Amino acid sequence: MKRAIFWRMMAVALAAVLLSGGILLWAFYDAVTDELDDSVEREARIAAQGMEQAADPQAFLDGFAPGTRVTWIAADGSVLYDSEADSAEMENHASRPEVQSALRLGAGGGSRLSDTMRERTHYFAVRLADGTVLRLSETHETALGRVYGILWVFVLLFAGMIALCAMLARQASRALVEPINGLNLDDPENNDVYDELAPLLIRLSRQGAHIREQMAQLETRQTEFTAVVDNMAEGLVLLNANLRVLAVNRSALALFGAPANCLGEHLLKLTRDHAIVQIVDRAAAGTRCEQIVEIGGRQYQAMANPVKGGGVVLLLPDVSERYAAERMRREFSANVSHELKTPLTAVAGYAELLASGLAKPEDARGFGQKILDESGRLLALIDDIMRLSRLDEGAPGAHMQPENLGEIAQGVAERLRPLAQKHGVSLAVDSDASIVTGVRALLEEMVHNLVDNAIKYNVENGSVRVAVKDGALTVEDTGIGVAQQDQQKIFERFYRVDKSRSREAGGTGLGLSIVKHIAQLHGAQVSLESEPGKGTKITVRFPK
Ligand code: ADP
Fold first, then answer.
1. For a Cys-Cys bond, which of 88, 168, 229, 537 suits 476, CB 3.0-4.6 Å?
2. What is the pLDDT of residue 396?
3. Does the CB atom of residue 235 touch ligand 1 within 6 A?
């Protein structure tokens, strides 16, 4: 803007200088020309009078000062005398305009420019009484010629004027622009610069307020969005059409182990997981994709959704628990079928023998007993499975109430005393009156399963000690023990260290899973200490 103003001013100043210079020159030129014309006419008239009275015209004509050319022309145009050239060699002058005028009207003048325009010759001719014509001419430098002579002055003057104009234009443009540059745009209406700027400043002020309002709204929205997104347990990543990260929440950063400053980076900087990159690519092409991915040993259901106008939203909920539960259910179904099949096959086998009549009558009783045993096992198994599925169905929260764990332990132990005696195992109970919140039937079942195991997996003359103290139940035996590598697994469904011993003892492989499940429902912790050949100690610690 400053530059534009400067050049405009310069153009105006130059035009003014050139125009005024030109007009001055022309006026000067015109005045000088007129004056010279007049002086030649005056001189010519005086000379004509002198010539009329002169006794010797030749001498009279010779007496003119140099600089004034005198030509005496006869009525027919031939030159009789010329002060500067040989009259005999001069052409006929009858056609010259001033001569013609003099012959016709008595006097006539004119002027002619030289080819270079630097000189002008002024003529004036007067007809004498004898019919001859006396012409005077003077050659003078024209105004232009004079200007040529002092051209350097003009150049100097012009340069000086331009320099002065440039300086003034610079100052003026700066003075004009400076207040605009110094405008306080943070508070546009509080500027006192040019009245013409007021509408613009008011508009700026209104727009500024509008923009501030919108920014505040955006910031609020951004804060809300960040708060919501950062508190999500699921990983969330927003990507633009070029798969660069627009937003990523804390869960996603933790999940990928990525730094917080990955905004604007490509997805690959966040994760190189092939499955994720693939579904994001497909979502970017417009297809919604979903896939279970494993990161750090946990399962996530990666969902990539295309966004209208380009971009992808990637959501990563943790589905490890659901995944594990589903897997367990699948395995459980397979195991249940397998476990049911064994006793049923035996039952079917014996029944077939009996039905075919091939069995000897004396064996029939034994087969009948076997069928009874296997059916009992089947029923026990079905009972346990039903119990487990009931437990799987959910927490019995509403039925929980304070129960005396010591009393429960005592009761269960008494019921199992005959079994202990049958196995030649001594059973001792040492309980206080610990009160725990729970479901009596489940607590009884838990104690039953633990004491039952302690008796079943014991040795001849072994012992079992049941203790309840400070809300913790301990069942300790001097039995066969569990090897280190099996200690965790025995709590899994259908896991048995020694399958045939468990079968003989009427085990289903579900007892400890039920114990674990009941403990979980009560918020209790189960721990196991065991050494093969020495014995096992299982403790269930209830929350205080
Ligand atoms: P089971 O019906 O076979 O007893 P459990 O779930 O109760 O099923 O026990 C799983 C396995 O853990 C048993 O088969 C047994 O091998 C082992 N076990 C459980 N309790 C004891 C114990 N007190 N001493 C030694 N081994 C045990």
1. 537
2. 63
3. no
